[in-house]
Amino acid sequence: MAVRTVGVEEEFLLVDPVSGRPRAVGGAVLQAAEDDSELTAELHREQLETGTRPCVGLDELGRELRGTRAVAAAAASAVGVDLVALATSPLAVEPTVSPSPRYRKMAQRFGLTVDEVMTCGCHVHVAIDSAEEGVAAADRIRPWLAPLLALSVNSPFWQGADSGYASFRSQLWTRWPSAGPYELFGSPAGYRGTVAAILGSDTVLDEGMIYFDARLSRHHPTLEIRVADVCLDPDDAVLIAALARALVETAVRGRRAGCAPDPVRTEVLRLASWRAGRSGLDGELLDPTTWRPAAAADVLNRLMAHVAPALEDAGELETVRGLLDAVLRRGTGATRQRQVLERTGDLSAVVAAATAAGRGTG
Question: How many domains does the chain fold into?
């Protein structure tokens, strides 16, 4: 059986090695990288984005993730900053918009939202054979996206304080008018009609601002799943990617078997996302099989049961179980950040620890 390829885009902060505060040097870092195609600019000059090649095996994906992080970290080091895998800055920052006409238009249209929403996500691209397949998968994976967010939470701090959320990035992200959970599309025509209605409203600038939690990629034959925080540990990004791919494969198999997608309303999905971002794995999540609160570990066990046939056929079941057990054992990025602050009382120490962890050395 052919296994779908999967690729990952990750967004990072560029921070001062001593203070831990973000620095507006994204353009200089890109120049230091000598136009490496793995690195691209982001909305703010304090950020950088990387992207892997499409991968089949999880070992291959892990090497790619570590490799792209290493390339980006080396380019950052060349201009005197560190690359850090945090979805929000623990320390206070006044972000600066990158100097592109599109980003400047975004700043003019969306005002304070652009100034404040300096967040870093993890976007997983899963190969699809057609738009029909992609929309069928997008419709069927909706219930399971909040648990992916809960696994990835890595942004408890914002502007120098504890936000009270495990993923404050997910709260900030909802400020975009086109972001978050979505209704059933039903068909490619339904998907295209929704996108056309959004663009026709003249609210967002372009199709690049269709920020659904999962969307058809404009540039690749993939379904792009955009719900996760950037992960502190590259192994956690591998886990998110493996589960995302298994969810897509399970959804496509369900479509072939004539299984209809869950008709759960977007309002309920938004509640599930809020709870996932609020407590991560440290509280209850909404169980997609009942839409009632349940222990996070129980919800993850149901997620594993849901995708187990796809993981087993890909030869990944034991690997993914091991990666999941590791997160449950050592905690999410948010939990680990808070542990560092409790131990040191210093948010700059949180950033330093995250820098090491993001390289796979801490």
Answer: 1
The pLDDT value given to residue 34: 75
Residues 291 and 245: beta-carbon distance below 8 Å:
no
Residue 137 belongs to what domain range? 6-358
pTM for this model (two decimals):
0.96
- Tell me which residue of 232, 163, 172, 337 sits closest to 10, measured CA to CA: 232
Nearest CA to 221 among 314, 310, 122, 134? Answer: 134
Label residue 151 left, alpha or beta by phi (over 0 means left) and psi (-120 to 50 means alpha): alpha
Cα–Cα distance, 334 to 346 (Å, whole number) = 15
DSSP structure class, residue 209: G
Nearest to 125 by CA among 240, 262, 276, 250: 240
d(CA 253, CA 243): 15
For residue 33, is pLDDT > 90? no
Q: What share of the chain is helix, strand, coil (3-state, %, to 5)?
A: 50, 15, 35
Q: What is the pLDDT of residue 48?
A: 96
Which residues are within 8 A (CB) of 275 and not within 5 positions of it... i.e. 6 or more apart? Answer: 146, 283, 284, 285, 286, 293
**DSSP codes, 274-301:** HHHHHHTTSSEEE-TTTSSEEEHHHHHH
Whole-number percent of the chain with pLDDT over 70: 98
CB atoms within 10 A of CB 1: 7
CATH code, domain carrying 267: 3.30.590.20
pLDDT of residue 65: 96
Structural domain includes residue 1? no
7 close to 62: Cβ distance less than 8 angstroms: no
Question: Which distant-in-sequence residues (6+ apart) come within 8 Å of 261 by Cβ?
Answer: 136, 139, 140, 142, 184, 251, 254
pLDDT tens readout for residues 202-230: 999 999 999 999 999 998 999 999 999 99
